[in-house]
Amino acid sequence: MAKIVSNFFISLDGVTESPDQWHFPYFDDQMGAAVEAGMRDATAFLMGRRLYEEWAAYWPTADQDQDFAKFINDARKYVVSNTLREADWNNTTVVSGDVTAGLREIKERTEGTIQMSGSATTVRWLLAEGLLVHPIAVGHGQRLFEDTPTHRLKLVESETFRSGVLNLTYVPDVG
Length: 175
Known about the structure:
By secondary structure, this protein is an alpha/beta fold. It contains five helices and nine strands; from the N terminus they run ββαβααββαβαβββ. Helices cover 27% and strands 27% of the residues. The protein is globular.
């Protein structure tokens, strides 16, 4: 059975929205290696409708010599949406209706890791496992955990990059 893992660019004050506007000064080879390591074992990719629409408009025509472009274009992709009716991007399936049952079924029949990036609304709903935190307080924007119940998490791995970015991996703390 697959495990759903989510990686985010998150500021110290919890902002996940529009990382393209604030995280690039911190993105370096070390962070790129961590992102690549997170994707390396992914057997599928899960995203919400908004991220799907942004990425489907960009990655299919991006320079295919980029490692991520080849990965994401070839990867099995699942989009959680009750408004998107069809997905034209290669290897994409829309999960709608009873999304919980649909994702349980996908997890059951998939081996390895179903990777996520972005999609804060979806992650709040799923209670994701992995977080990348940036050493910046953005001060505005959508937060990962906003008006949600308390979720106990356990830190299982951490790494500090030279840029000050923390690569933190959490799992639900059920005990």
